[in-house]
Amino acid sequence: MQHIQSLQSLINELCKLPGIGVKTAQRLAYFILKKSDQNIPALVQSLNDIQANVKLCNKCFDFTEQKQICDTCTNHKRNAQNICVVEDPSGIQKIESAGVYNGLYHVLHGSLSPLDGIGVEDLKIAELFKRIEESLVTELPITEIIFALDPDLEGDTSILYISKQLSNYKNIKITQLAHGVPVGGDIEYINYRTLAKALENRIEVS
Ligand SMILES: [Zn+2]
């Protein structure tokens, strides 16, 4: 087959997506090309839209559309004194689907991984402490931080680092998902019932 540079560039870009190998990228690229008159404008439009419209909430750093503060953070029916710390916005989706948590969230946008060069300043850690500090002078100070990070080395390293700093706040309980969440698993791949149980039976970080 002759080399088509534009096609190769598309395949290269698709390969950067998580879980997409070369074979899948090629299949997707050919699919996009097949009905290019229909597929490409819609795809380009939605990529442009998310780039233009989707922002990070200034408080929890979840994705939000055209707002400074997201709907979850401004929902007064939720318990603003509990903050569940997740690695990515997808973690919020998962926990919401489990249907047992009514507090707020904080997205770190990754986890500490010195080997990959991801340090404290690369994550929304300072922002978490700023939120805590700001809450302490309100009527609804934060009373519990719940870690729902992936049960891997990076997740554990992050919990250790953050909870050490949190121990300065005597009135804040620090918890994490109960054991039973498969070690080495990813919280995106465990089922809702397991996650609901792990949340309800959460344990204190020692
Ligand atoms: Zn928010």
Account of the 3D structure:
The chain has helices at residues 5-15, 22-34, 36-53, 89-98, 125-136, 153-166, 192-200; strands at 54-56, 63-65, 79-86, 103-107, 144-147, 173-176, 203-204. The chain is of the alpha/beta class. A five-stranded mixed sheet has the order 4-3-5-6-7. A two-stranded antiparallel sheet has the order 1-2. It has two domains: 5-55, Helicase, Ruva Protein, domain 3 (Orthogonal Bundle), CATH 1.10.8.420; 69-204, Dna Topoisomerase Vi A Subunit, Chain: A, domain 2 (3-Layer(aba) Sandwich), CATH 3.40.1360. Strand 5, helix 6 (153-166) and strand 6 (173-176) form a beta-alpha-beta unit. The protein is elongated. It has seven helices and seven strands, in the order H-H-H-E-E-E-H-E-H-E-H-E-H-E. The longest helix is centred in the N-terminal third of the chain and has 18 residues, at 36-53. The N and C termini lie far apart (60 Å). Bound molecules: zinc ion (ZN).
In short:
With 206 residues, the chain is α/β, with parallel strands linked by helices. The chain has helices at residues 5-15, 22-34, 36-53, 89-98, 125-136, 153-166, 192-200; strands at residues 54-56, 63-65, 79-86, 103-107, 144-147, 173-176, 203-204.
